[in-house]
C-alpha cells in the first residue's frame, strides 16, 4: 500500500533490527540503571565509532538529550546561541530553559539554516559591555543536519567552534539527524563532531530507526560531571537501561544508522530532483539530508493534500516567497511512495487552473 | 539456572506479552506524539479498567510520572506531604523539586510505611500560623504499596484524602506497585484510587513487566491543564508514542498487570512465611505486596551474600533493631529461586558460629 | 559644581522629600512585613491616585517588580511578548526567566521602541499551530516610557491590550519611568494604565527620587493570588516595610512623582532642542520623556568625553546610522548642567577636525 | 511610653546612626550598581573588621542573603544540611529551593538549636550509598546565634566545619544575629567565622539597627564566582547602592553593631534572670543572645497578652513540655520596658487562679 505520509521522520515505525535487539535483550535479571553489559558494550562501541575516548549516556528523546546537554554547559544566568529555527529554540516548549533553570536561548538568523562565526560578534560584545546586567555567554548549539535540511561541513563547524571556544563557550551539537549529515558528507563521525570542536553531542536514533533512543556524548569527560544527577532528577534514567542501550548498539554497530540515513537521503534527493523539473516548482534549500523544502503553487499544494498526501506548510526563510512545504523522507520510505507523490505533483501542476 | 537476585523488581526483563506488543505495534506510519490509535485505545481501556472518565498520559519512568503529577498539584511555593521513606522524598534526586520549581517535600514518620490523617494536623497548623513565611500546603502523596511493602486499605486512603481535601490539598498516589496492592486487597482499581479520593495517579508498569512504561492518570480533568506542556518541556513526550501506549495496553488488558502482581506477591509470601520459621529470623513488616523486610543475624546475611544471593541491607524502621535486609520478588520470580534462598538461609542459620 | 553625568537617572541621589519620609518613619515599634500603618496608608493613597480599587506591593528594585509581576502572569511553559529592547529582555540578567521558572521572553522589533498590535499575529499563530511543542502565549509586557524615550498614547496601549486580551494574554506595564510618561501625556495615571487595559503595573520610583522603592500594582485582585508567596520566597519582603512604604507615600502624595518627572522631561527637551540645532547633530528619536538619543560625529563624542561628560554610546535602532549616544536627565538635573553640556557640544562641533 | 512589643527584633525602627548615614550619603551623582565610594569603603571596612581578605556584597534582606549564599554552594541536585528550626528551613517560604533551582534542605534535630558533627554521618552515608538516586551533599548551614537563642562556640563551629569540609561540603553561616553571638562570646568576628571554617557568611544588620541591609561575605573568593549574576538576576542589585553600603558602614564602623547587640543581649539577660525567679516559670533554653524562651502557666500568658504585651507562643523543643513563649529584645529595648513586663508577670503569677 502506498505510504502518503511525508510529514516527518518521526511517524515511522522502528527498524526491524531495533525491535530484534529489544527482544534479544529480554533475558534474565540484570543490574538496573545502566550497570549492565549492554550499556558497557554501548560505551565501547561508541568509542570505536567515534574513534576517541568518550562518555555516552542513553536517554529517551531528543528534547531530553538537548536540554540535559545544554544544562551541563550553561548556568541559569547563561546564554545559548543557536540558529533561530533550532529545535531547542522553537520546538521544545522551553525545555532548555527548564533544564538550565532559566538560561536564555538566543536565536541567530541564517537563510540556509546555518549560522556563521561572525554572527557571534555582536551578541558577545553586547554581553561584555553590559556586564552583570546581561546573561553570560555560555554555549553555542549547532544543529547537524540543520532544520532547513542543509549540512555544515566539518570546516564550517570548526570555524564556529573556534569562535565559541575563543570566547569561553562550550559547543553543543544537536545531532538529531547526525546520521543523515554524515551520510551526506561521507566523512567519519569523528570529523563532524569532536575533531571539528564539538564538546557535547546529542545523537539521534529515534527518527532514523529506534523506538525511542537518543544519547548524549561527552568528548570531554570533565563537562559530564553533573550529567548523571541531572538525568536522574529529570526522570530520564531508565531502570531497565538494557532496553535503551540495546537499541543504540543495534543502531551504531554494523553501520545501520548510516545505511538508514543514506537511504532516507537518497529518497529526498530523488524527490527533490524530480520535483524541481516541474514548472512553477523550485527548491528553497539545497537538499543535503532527508528534508525537501519546496515552493509550489497553492493549487498544487491543495491538490496533493486532496490526494491524501501528508506534509506541513512551512514559513518561508529570509528572502524566499510563495507557498512552501516541507517533505521528509525516512529510512523506510519506499521509492514507489516517492514516485507516487511525484506523479500526483505532476498531475496537479499540469491541471488547468480552477475557474 | 537459579536466579539469585532479590535486589529489586527493576532488575527483571520484560514480560513476553510486552515485547510482543511492541513488535506488533511496529507496522506502518502513524501520527506522532500520541495522535495514534494505540494511544486512543489506551485511554478507552484505562477508562474501562478504572470504571470512570479519566485522562491518561504515558511516560517512561516512575520518577517522571511522580514529578510531573506533583507539578500539576503544587506551585513552586508549595509543600507536598508524604511518608518520610517515600520514593519522591529519598530516591529521585530531587525530581519533584525540579519539576515544581522548588516546592518542599515534607516527610512524615510511620513505622509501617503509612501515614495517618492526624499527622497532617501539626504541619498544616504550623503553615497556617506562619502565613507567607511558610510554603503553602498543596498536595498529599501516598505510596501504594508503600516503601515498606505494606498496603493502605481503601478506607485508610479515604480518611487521608478527606483530611487532605478538607485542607485544600490535592491527593496524589505513587502507584509504582499499585498492581501489587490491588492484588493484595482484592479490590477494584477504582476502589483504591478515585473512589478513595485520589486525584492524580502515577501508575507503574516497569517493575511489573514493561520495558519502560508508566502513566499519569487524572481523575479530575481540570487538574491536567498544564500536564501536556510540562511533559513536552521535560522531554517526556515520545514521538513514537505507539510504543509506549502499546506496552500499557498489553499491561492493562486481559489482566496481565494483576496476574503478574499476584505472582510476585505470592512469591513474597512464600519467602516470608518460611523465613519466619527460622530461628533468629523475624519479619519486620507484614508482607502485603512483593517486598520482604526481614531481620536476621549478621552471620546469616553474610552467608547468603557469600552464596551469591543479591539484596540490600536496609535501615531499620522506628522501633526495630538488628540487621535488616530487603528481599524483592517479581512477576518472573521462580518458586525454585525462592526455595533456593530458603534452603541457603536455613543452612546459614543452623551453621555453627564462626570462631 | 557642574554635574557632568548624563549616564542614567539611577546615578542620582534621592529627593529630599524621600529622605525626610524615611527619617519621619523612624519612630517606635511597628508590626513587621507590611502590617503597619504606612503600608496601609500607601494602599489608600495608590487607590486615590489611580482612581480604582487595587492591590499595591512595595519591592526594592525594578527588576524585582518586573520579574515578580511577570511570574504571576506566566507559567514556566509560557511566553512573554515585549519590545526587543525591553529591560526585561536585555538588562535583567534573565530575571523573568528565573522568576517564572523558565518562561521565554520574545522580543519584537519597532524602530521607535514601541510594538504594534499586528506584530502579535505571527507569533500567536505560530504558537497555535505548534501546540504543545511551543511555549504558550501568556503575557504582553509594555514599557512606558519606552527604552527609546518615547511614550505610548493611551489609545496605543488600549489597542495592544485589546489584542492581548483577545488572545488570553495578561498585560503588564514596566512603568520604571511611568511618571515621565504621564508628565508627557498630561493624562491621569488611570488613563495610561488600567483604563487602557493594563492588568499589572511595575511602578518605578527609584530613578525618579527614591533611594530604592518600586511597587507592583494589581488592578485585578485575582491575578495577585501568588504574589505574596513569590515576593517572600524571593527575599523581597522587607521586615521593616514602613521604610519602603514611606518612600512610596512621599513619592505619590502631593504630586512629587509628577513634578520630578516633569522637571526631568523639561531638561531633556531643553537638551534635545538645542542639540538639534547644531550642525551634524540630529535626534534619533522624538524626546517624550527624560532620555535623548542623538547622533553626532565621533569627534564630537570624543570631545565631550574628554571634557568629562559621562554618557553611553548606544546601538542604533533599525534604519539609523552613525555614532549614537544616550543622554539621560533626572529630577535633579540643573539647567546649568544642561547648558554646560550644550556649550561643550557647540565647541566640539565647531572645532576644526583633528589632522 | 512603655513599649510592650517583645514579638521580634524586626519590629524596631532603625538606629539613629543608620538614618544619619543614609541622609549623609544623599549628595551628588554617583556611579550606580556598587561602583561608588561607599561600597568601596565598605569592602575595606569589612576586611578590617574581619581581619582578612574577603568579598562583601550588600543585599536587602536576610532571606535574600541566605538564599543567594546557598545558591553559590549548592547545585540544583544538592542537599543543604541545617538545624530543623533554621530560618532557611522553615521561615523563608522556600527561598533556598527557589534560588538553588530545587535543592533539598535537610533539617537535623537538636534540642538547644545546635547541630553536632556526628549528626552528619547518617545522611552523608545514606547519600553515598544511594548514589545518583539521592541529592548530593553540598553545604552545611549554621545559624549564629541559633533560632533558640543559643550560641555556638568557635570550637563547636570548627568541629562542624571540619566534618563538612572533610566531606566536600561548603559551610555557610546564617549570621542574622551574628552581632549578638559575638557580643556574647566576646570573641573577634574572625574567630567565629572564617577562623572557625566558615566559607560564606550572611551578615545581618536589619534586626540590629538598619532599615534594610544585610550582606553576603565570601572568605574564599573562588566561591563568589556566580554571585553577582545571581544577585542581579534576583533583582537584589540596588542601582543606588550607596544607600545600602552606607547603612552597613555605619553599622560596622565604630562598633555600632556590637554595642547594639550587647544592649539587646543585656536586656534579654535581665528579663530572663528575673523571670526565672518567679514561681512556675522556667527558662527553656540558656539565654545567650537576645531571645528568651520561657515556659510559664497558660493563665500567666493570657494575663500578659491582656495587659497588651506582644510576643509569640512557641512550639516546644524536644524534651520540653508546657506552654512556651518567645520574648525578643533589641538594640532599642528600654530597661523600663523590661521591668514593666516583669512587673506584669509577677502580678499574673501571684494572681489567684480564675475560678
Structural descriptors:
Aspartate Aminotransferase, domain 1; seven-stranded mixed sheet; four-stranded antiparallel sheet; 13 helices; 39% helix; 355 residues; homotetramer; alpha/beta
Question: Layout of helices and strands, plus pairs?
Answer:
The structure is a homotetramer of 355-residue chains.
Chain A: H1 16-24, H2 37-50, E1 55-59, H3 62-73, E2 78-83, H4 87-90, H5 95-100, E3 104-108, H6 121-130, E4 136-143, H7 154-166, E5 170-175, H8 178-185, E6 200-204, E7 214-218, H9 227-233, H10 242-252, H11 256-275, E8 282-283, E9 291-295, H12 298-306, E10 312-313, E11 324-328, H13 335-350
Parallel strand pairs in A: 2-3, 2-4, 4-5, 5-6
Antiparallel strand pairs in A: 1-7, 6-7, 8-9, 9-11, 10-11
Helix pairs in contact in A: 1-10, 2-10, 8-11, 11-13, 12-13
Brief account:
By secondary structure, chain A is α/β, with parallel strands linked by helices. Helices cover 39% and strands 15% of the residues of chain A. The interface between A and B is large, with 53 and 53 residues.
Q: What report would you give on this structure?
A:
Four copies of one chain form a homotetramer. Chain A is an alpha/beta fold and 355 residues long. Chain A folds into two domains: 16-255, Type I PLP-dependent aspartate aminotransferase-like (Major domain) (Aspartate Aminotransferase, domain 2), CATH 3.40.640.10; 257-350, Aspartate Aminotransferase, domain 1 (Alpha-Beta Complex), CATH 3.90.1150.10. Chain A is built from 13 helices and eleven strands. A seven-stranded mixed sheet of chain A has the order 1-7-6-5-4-2-3, with helices on both faces. The first copy, chain A, has a four-stranded antiparallel sheet with strand order 8-9-11-10, covered by helices on one side. In chain A, strand 5, helix 8 (178-185) and strand 6 form a beta-alpha-beta unit. In chain A, helix 2 packs parallel to helix 10, helix 11 (256-275) packs parallel to helix 13 and helix 12 (298-306) crosses helix 13 (335-350). The radius of gyration of chain A is 21 Å and the shape is globular. The two termini of chain A are 34 Å apart. The mean pLDDT of chain A is 96. Chains A and B meet through helix 1, helix 3 and helix 9 of A and helix 1, helix 3 and helix 9 of B.
Amino acid at each position: 500500500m502506498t505510504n502518503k505520509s511525508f510529514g516527518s521522520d518521526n511517524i515511522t515505525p522502528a527498524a526491524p533490527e531495533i525491535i530484534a535487539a529489544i527482544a534479544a535483550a529480554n533475558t534474565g535479571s540484570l543490574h538496573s540503571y545502566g550497570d549492565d553489559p549492554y550499556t558497557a558494550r554501548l560505551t565501547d562501541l561508541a568509542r570505536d565509532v567515534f574513534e576517541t575516548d568518550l562518555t555516552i549516556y542513553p536517554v529517551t528523546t531528543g528534547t531530553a538529550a538537548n536540554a540535559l546537554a545544554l544544562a551541563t554547559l550553561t548556568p541559569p544566568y547563561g546564554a545559548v546561541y543557536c540558529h533561530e529555527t533550532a529545535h531547542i529554540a522553537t520546538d521544545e516548549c522551553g525545555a532548555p530553559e527548564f533544564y538550565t533553570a532559566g538560561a536564555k536561548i538566543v536565536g541567530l538568523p541564517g537563510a540556509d539554516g546555518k549560522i556563521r562565526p561572525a554572527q557571534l560578534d555582536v551578541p558577545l560584545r553586547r554581553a561584555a559591555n553590559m556586564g552583570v546586567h546581561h546573561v553570560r555567554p555560555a554555549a553555542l548549539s549547532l544543529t547537524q543536519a540543520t532544520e532547513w535540511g542543509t549540512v555544515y561541513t566539518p570546516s564550517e563547524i570548526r570555524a564556529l567552534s573556534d569562535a565559541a571556544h575563543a570566547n569561553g563557550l562550550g559547543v553543543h551539537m544537536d545531532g538529531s539527524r547526525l546520521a543523515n549529515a554524515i551520510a551526506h558528507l561521507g566523512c567519519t563521525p569523528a570529523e563532524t563532531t569532536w575533531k571539528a570542536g564539538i564538546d557535547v553531542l546529542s545523537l539521534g536514533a529515534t527518527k532514523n530507526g529506534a523506538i525511542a533512543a537518543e544519547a548524549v556524548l561527552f568528548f570531554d569527560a570533565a563537562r559530564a560531571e553533573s550529567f548523571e544527577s541531572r538525568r536522574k532528577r529529570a526522570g530520564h534514567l531508565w531502570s531497565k537501561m538494557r532496553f535503551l542501550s540495546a537499541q543504540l548498539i543495534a543502531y551504531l554497530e554494523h553501520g545501520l544508522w548510516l545505511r538508514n540515513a543514506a537511504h532516507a537521503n537518497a529518497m529526498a534527493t530523488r524527490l527533490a530532483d524530480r520535483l524541481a523539473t516541474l514548472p512553477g516548482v523550485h527548491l528553497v534549500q539545497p537538499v543535503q539530508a532527508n528534508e525537501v523544502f519546496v515552493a509550489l503553487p497553492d493549487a498544487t499544494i491543495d491538490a496533493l493534500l486532496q490526494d491524501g498526501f501528508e506534509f506541513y506548510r512551512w514559513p518561508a526563510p529570509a528572502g524566499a516567497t510563495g507557498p512552501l512545504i516541507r517533505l521528509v523522507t525516512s529510512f523506510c520510505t519506499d521509492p514507489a511512495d516517492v514516485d507516487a507523490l511525484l506523479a500526483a505533483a505532476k498531475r496537479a501542476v499540469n491541471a488547468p487552473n480552477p475557474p
